[in-house]
Amino acid sequence: MKSIAFFTGTCLLFFFCSCQKFLEAKPDKKLVVPSSVQDFQALLDNTNRMNRAVPYSAESSADDYYVTTTDWKSLSITSQNLYAWGKDVFNDNALNSWSNTYITVYYANTVLDYAGAVKGTENVMGQASFFRSFAHWHLLQIFATAYSADMPSATPGIPLRLSSDLNIPTKKAGLQESYNQIIADAKQAVRLLPVTQLFNTRPSKPAAYALLARIYLSMSDYSNALLYADSALQLNNKLIDFNSLNANAAAPISQFGVEEFFYAILTGSTILGPSIAKIDSNLYRSYAANDLRKTVFFSKNTDGSYAFKGSYAGTTSQYNGLSTDEMYLIRSECNARTGNITAAMSDLNTLLTKRWKSGTFIPLIATTANEALTQILTERRKELLMRGLRWTDLRRLNKITAFAKTITRVIDNQTYSLPPGDNRYTLQIPLNVIAMTGIEQNPY
């Protein structure tokens, strides 16, 4: 029987070392398992696993930045091919966007498998449900085709791991089934989680609402995305006033700020580091002089290009957590798409007022839903860059002719292009996973 082979031996070793407390042998040869609220919380509080291991590959493949040929040649094979949309990815390192994310799922499943028999575990079960949904959603953005309401029923999704039993065979679920599952997990999290947690690394009820908004937006389900973005903002609608920030600081935005529902960052990668990733010049020029994001988000390199420094992580790491600015933009977009122009522009202007130099912002206006939508999507790109969200936006917006885009890269005088709807918007599964499980490789 082919078992859960998305963990290589190296990945299992990594996992077992991380969970040694629960995996030491008993005298009767059975394994110790977590059995108390403290045990379960300790697993979920492993922030290196649960909060700092979000796949970086989607952001690496998107168009917020570029790298020079010299820097590109210094990168790993996987990073080179993520940037140029090549086929050979995730085969040069056992810890990659596939294995790392499924290890996170394993942690969540361990809690869900054992916590139900213990009293007082609603909070940790809610957290585990959130983490499993969050991880599976990222896998869907990378390893499955973009969601479409009119997709064939047989459209493949990803392997859904819903148990910590490593002997269960690996097989792909359907795409609709995959999305149904992450929605069910996120809704379970809403039911079980408290409104506030001790730390932002632990998901809360508003974080689960925000996750549902992000999921539904990726599905182009605007009514539900609107509902859950609004639910999140009902519990926290605070925005950072960029006038209060020191734009000259190396990291102007502090970690765990007032906008944050849930803290998460992308796995560290050389290609996205500020010394390598240079912000797309057209994107940089799109910020007006009085738009404080132009100085809060960017620093000028010695060669005249610009590096990104505006991460909500408070460091050079790329933030992928859930925050109020994203929810304002989701609610704004969904209101525009459902014809409520006044509400759409109100949310957009509420956000932008906090981003511009005091007294200089003139509220944006729109007389049609399309005018509103165009402005909202422009500001979404400028607000949420380098957050691991652009790839999903490209995938969903490419289905709309007016917003479809062909991305290009130039490396060593050779131009690479990625047109809308290309198979390369779904990345290749690691070859060792294909060999060990027999699941179908993604088209290329």
Rg from alpha-carbon coordinates:
21 Å
Beta-strand segment tally: 8
- Specify the structural class: mainly alpha
User: Order of strands in the sheet with the most strands?
Assistant: 1-3
Tally of structural domains: 1
Gross geometry: globular
What's the rounded overall pLDDT mean?
93
- Uncertain ranges: 1-30
Can you characterise this structure?
By secondary structure, this protein is mainly α. The protein has a single domain (9-245, 318-437), classed as Serine Threonine Protein Phosphatase 5, Tetratricopeptide repeat. Helix content is 44%, strand content 6%. The protein has helices at 9-18, 20-23, 37-44, 47-50, 57-61, 69-73, 77-84, 97-115, 122-143, 175-192, 205-218, 222-235, 281-285, 293-296, 324-337, 341-353, 369-383, 390-397, 431-437, and strands at residues 65-66, 260-262, 278-279, 298-300, 306-308, 322-323, 407-411, 414-418. Helix 10 packs antiparallel against helix 11 and helix 15 runs antiparallel to helix 16. Residues 1-30 have low confidence and may be disordered.
